[in-house]
Amino acid sequence: MTPSDAPAPQRGRPTVLDPPAIAAATFRLWSERGYAAVGWKDIAEATGVSVRTLVRHFARKSDIAWVGVPTATRRLREALEQTPGDVPVDDAVRRAIVASMSDDPMSPAGPDWIRLVCTEPELAGTAPTAYRPWIEELAEFIAGRTPGMPRAAAMALASGYQAATVAALVAWSESDTDERAATAAEQALAWISIASA
Questions:
Q1: Residue 11's pLDDT is what?
Q2: Domain count, the chain
Q3: For 143-191, what is each residue's pLDDT tens digit?
Q4: What is the Cα–Cα distance from 100 to 83, expressed in whole angstroms?
């Protein structure tokens, strides 16, 4: 191999990043100091990851709040795919939403996370974009299991389920209970029913 045939050297080291660990450390900082008071330098110091690397992986500071949503979306999809066809659609949806949740207190559905994303305007403002894949996954299932339902109606129902889940989690995070977040969400979602055509 001649020098001209050799592959160009890579600049820098490959990045190995643990997004859940970054999120957990960042959530702690936000809880202690407030969202606005925490900058990239603070996050870098808390995580041991350079500011440059953080900014390369998270376009905005608010993106860190949503690192758990793709995993929750994957768990939702898997639960929906494993649902037998004879399970009523509203039961299937409720079970899948509960299966998509995590018990980690610093992850989506944890009390600290809920308080942060619901009280910080920038985080609340990015929620619709962050949750869009989760909602679309749920809407696809609802439309597939409810013949004749227009896509817009399925999206509206899926969005309603997401809003109801967040409302249940907010109430749960504000209560003094040992109940699991998933249990609180399941109890609230039991009140929602999808009428079949």
A1: 52
A2: 2
A3: 999 989 999 999 999 999 999 998 998 888 888 777 888 888 899 999 9
A4: 13
Chain segment 105-138, per-residue pLDDT in tens: 445 446 778 878 888 899 989 999 999 999 999 9
CATH, residue 121: 1.10.357.10
Q: Model pTM greater than 0.90?
A: no
Spatial distance between the Cα atoms of 167 and 173, rounded to a whole number of angstroms = 10
- According to DSSP, residue 62 is labeled G
**Which tokens sit at 20?**
């859940």
64-73 as b/e: b if 16+ CB within 10 A: bbbbbbeebb
Q: Would residue 48 count as lying in a domain?
A: yes
Query: 33: which 2 tokens?
Result: 């100091």
Chain CA centroid to CA 18, Å: 16
